[in-house]
Description:
globular
Amino acid sequence: MRKAVEHLKRADPKLAKVITEVGPYRIRYLPPNFETLAKAIVYQQLSGKVAGAIFRRLREAAGNGRLSPEAILRLDPERMRATGLSRQKIEYLRTLARCVQDGSVDLASLRHLPDQEVVRRLTQLKGVGEWTAHMFLIFALRRPDVLPAGDLGIRAAVRKLYHLPRLPSPREVESLARPWRPYATVASWYLWRSLEPDANL
């Protein structure tokens, strides 16, 4: 990733300062499986701390310390509700579990597809929006040029980085991020860490 970091430093002096402050790029990847996509669903529209606690309780409820489609479908919805999940997210997780279990969704096959096609396929699933697909691209498929422009943390970090008077729109983030290409994933990681230095990313 040295090439990516050097590119970003040259392309954006403000981001270069963040990179220096944060230090080496140490993203934590996850396997491209059911549990990883389920985790992204749990984390939707929640703070990392709250979502992390819910996800830990959900894994414990699954019984064997990991999430599989079978474990989710065995869990009673009320038991899932007790972990802190909303009824909507329970429905999303159970729908995903059924799709993976019956083979109508093949997560392993996504690794061979371009980014836009991965997003298209994942967002056809109930409860999976662009943000969730972007998280899967970044943390599971290890794609180097993904920009989750609608992510609140990214928008807040961009506002702070450029001293903007208000939170930028996703379109404004996309425009400001042009110099970061083709390493928007690396830039995004540094932006997240600029807000939460101890984030588990």
